[in-house]
Amino acid sequence: MLRTQHGVRLLGPSDLPALSELVARDPVVNVFVDHRARITRLDPRWMGGEMWGYVQDGELVSACHAAANLVPVDATPEAVQAFAARAIRQRRRCATIVGPADAVTGLWDELEHHWSRPRDVRWVQPHLEIDRAPDVEPDPGVRRTRPGDLDVLYPACVAMYTEEVGVSPEAGGGAAMYRARVAQLIGKGWSFARIEDGRVLFKAEVAAVSPYACQIQGVYVDPTRRGEGLATSGMAAVVATALREIAPVVSLYVNDHNTPARRAYAAVGFEQTATFSTIMF
């Protein structure tokens, strides 16, 4: 029940229907927040943070996931200013700000004089979607990983994360938590790889799922095998399985400067539907 007539308030379990209606305005772009809302039911015990809502005349018009990631949802200019003001009062708790470029840029315009300098900023990240069979033949060697693959898969996950983010997920004692996350994705059936002779040649994970879409992350090809088309056929295999067994739309976002990845995704049949930005601390 949204009692606040105007401004920002914390959302809780009773607000789930209103938030579900909000994310449904663009359920693919908003799949991460939709996923988090569904698995936590907006219960503070499971959120690991907060979900903020911006209310006008008693109606929820925007939201913002405020935990390890600060993720705006359908954020109007007024909501962006209000979310930024709340974030300034609380000081920085997140590791990243990520989401639609306009909202992320607006948030940072308000926050940059109050928060520490970011470690990296990626202003242009095409958001891509596919809802049909891939345009290339899937790699038959790509399969869902199994618990017994964890020891082989984990180093590739660390290498991908370090290459993509710029710091190791094991930094600061994070190894156990990151390994648990990799194991969790395997257990859910959301981890895919081509493994030969004890080496991961290609891998990718589904990171978020809703009834409307899923989002892929962690795409990686062994550095010694890049340029052979493994990413293209591997992604085709992941897309084919995901569309058949996980969600009706597959999405991801990619750095604009990552030309090889963008070529691979285009060859599979992904099309750009939005632009994301990410600010990392």
Judged by helices, strands and strand pairing, the structural class is alpha+beta
- Helix coverage percent: 25-40%
Low-pLDDT runs: none
**Total DSSP helices:** 9
What does this structure look like?
With 281 residues, the protein is α+β, with helices and mostly antiparallel strands. The chain folds into two domains: 6-116, Aminopeptidase, CATH 3.40.630; 130-274, 3-Layer(aba) Sandwich (Aminopeptidase). It has nine helices and twelve strands. It has helices at 16-23, 31-40, 44-47, 77-90, 101-111, 150-165, 175-188, 230-245, 259-268; strands at residues 6-10, 50-56, 59-66, 69-73, 96-100, 120-130, 143-144, 191-196, 199-209, 214-221, 250-253, 271-280. The chain has a twelve-stranded mixed sheet, with helices on both faces. A hairpin with a 4-residue loop joins β9 and β10. α1 (16-23) runs antiparallel to α2 and α4 packs across α5. It starts with 5 loop residues before the first strand and ends with a strand. The mean pLDDT is 96.
Q: What's this entry about, in short?
A:
The protein has helices spanning 16-23, 31-40, 44-47, 77-90, 101-111, 150-165, 175-188, 230-245, 259-268; strands spanning 6-10, 50-56, 59-66, 69-73, 96-100, 120-130, 143-144, 191-196, 199-209, 214-221, 250-253, 271-280.
What attributes does this structure have?
DUF4081; alpha+beta; single chain; twelve-stranded mixed beta sheet; 2 domains; Acyl_CoA_acyltransferase; Aminopeptidase; 29% strand; GNAT family N-acetyltransferase
